[in-house]
Amino acid sequence: MIDENLLLDYGARKVSYSKGDQLFREGESALNFYQIISGEVKMNNYNEDGKEFIQGIFSIGQSFGEPPLFANVKYPANAEAISDAEVLQVPKEQFLELLSSNPKVHLKITETLAKRLFYKAIMVSEISSQEPEHRILRILDYLKKYVHKKEGQFSFRVDLTRQQLADLTGLRVETVIRATKSLEKKGELQIKKRKVYR
């Protein structure tokens, strides 16, 4: 997370979005750096059949959509508010200037991007070859350890819907429901008041 005042010093403006609003679309030019003040944003794609695949879900203090800023390529995915959200938006040139003038911030962004590459590497191998239960455990363990930094059995409450879990793992909702019930029976998950714990 980059300090809000530093972003404002480099020309950030606060923009409000309603649930369902698009921040940018796949194929558009990358013009801004985005950091979330409140709410949640997902990055997603749709296949030819209209099935959604969620690339990632981002919340307070997180940034998203940076790689195209550095690579001078079009956005490979859409960004959509999944709740009402307020976002700091910094024009590309000012953001690059901020990084040039603040090496520690630049290093933090590099670390964030490296973690996302790690996540993508894990998920590509999972989605291409693994069984549903394994995919679900892998994404939950990644979120538990690397995103929410939780330890201990059933200490991580999963705040994703079954649909979001399906979209993150490339599965159907029905498959996620069956697999989570099976994982509960095996003692890998707990389900309390319709919430999953890992």
Automatic annotation (TrEMBL):
<dbReference type="Pfam" id="PF13545">
    <property type="entry name" value="HTH_Crp_2"/>
</dbReference>
<dbReference type="InterPro" id="IPR012318">
    <property type="entry name" value="HTH_CRP"/>
</dbReference>
<dbReference type="InterPro" id="IPR000595">
    <property type="entry name" value="cNMP-bd_dom"/>
</dbReference>
<dbReference type="InterPro" id="IPR014710">
    <property type="entry name" value="RmlC-like_jellyroll"/>
</dbReference>
<feature type="domain" description="Cyclic nucleotide-binding">
    <location>
        <begin position="1"/>
        <end position="116"/>
    </location>
</feature>
<feature type="domain" description="HTH crp-type">
    <location>
        <begin position="130"/>
        <end position="198"/>
    </location>
</feature>
<dbReference type="InterPro" id="IPR050397">
    <property type="entry name" value="Env_Response_Regulators"/>
</dbReference>
<dbReference type="InterPro" id="IPR036390">
    <property type="entry name" value="WH_DNA-bd_sf"/>
</dbReference>
<keyword id="KW-0805">Transcription regulation</keyword>
<dbReference type="Pfam" id="PF00027">
    <property type="entry name" value="cNMP_binding"/>
</dbReference>
<keyword id="KW-0238">DNA-binding</keyword>
<dbReference type="InterPro" id="IPR018490">
    <property type="entry name" value="cNMP-bd_dom_sf"/>
</dbReference>
<keyword id="KW-0804">Transcription</keyword>
<protein>
    <submittedName>
        <fullName>Crp/Fnr family transcriptional regulator</fullName>
    </submittedName>
</protein>
